[in-house]
Amino acid sequence: MTRNVPDLPEALVRKHLQEVLDTCRETNKQPSVLMLARRLDLTNTTFRRRYPDIAREIADHRAAPAAPRSGPTAHDRLVARNAKLRRRNRELTSQLAVAVAQIQFRHSARPSSRRT
């Protein structure tokens, strides 16, 4: 059975919308209809049915490109770190190959201590 939820004044819904948008901006998250609906103790569907204009506004906020960030993103830092680790891994592999070759050369150049 569904519960009867009274209509909330649009001014109250817009006040909560602004708070959600401010919080999302501070935490660098995308706003969602569900986020606002939960805050108002409504289901997602009920909110969308009663406040379609506000739901569309939230969708527009989600579709808008994020403000340009200064500096590299987390993804950019991860890509750069992976490239650096790969370069270092190649260097170490090369050094290891040289060390193995030197050990093998020294071992084969030694006179045999076995008696025949």
Helix/strand order, N-terminal first: HHHHH
3D shape: rod-shaped
> What would you report as the Rg, rounded to the nearest angstrom?
32 Å
Structural class by sheet pairing and helices: mainly alpha
**Which whole number gives the mean pLDDT?**
87
- How many β-strand runs? 0
Terminal CA distance reads 97 Å
Strand content: under 5%
Number of helices: 5
User: Ranges with pLDDT <50 over ≥5 residues?
Assistant: none
Q: Largest sheet at a glance?
A: none
**Count of separate structural domains:** 2
The portion of residues assigned to helices is 55-70%
Give me the secondary-structure topology.
Blueprint: H1 10-27, H2 33-39, H3 44-50, H4 52-63, H5 74-109
Helix pairs in contact: 2-3, 3-4
Overview of the molecule:
With 116 residues, the chain is mainly alpha-helical. The chain has two domains: 54 residues; 45 residues. 69% of the residues lie in helices and 0% in strands. The chain is built from five helices and no strands. Helix 2 crosses helix 3 and helix 3 packs across helix 4. The mean pLDDT is 87.
Output the keywords:
116 residues, mainly alpha, 2 domains
Q: How would you briefly describe this protein structure?
A:
Helix content is about 70%, strand content about 0%. It is mainly alpha-helical and about 120 residues long.
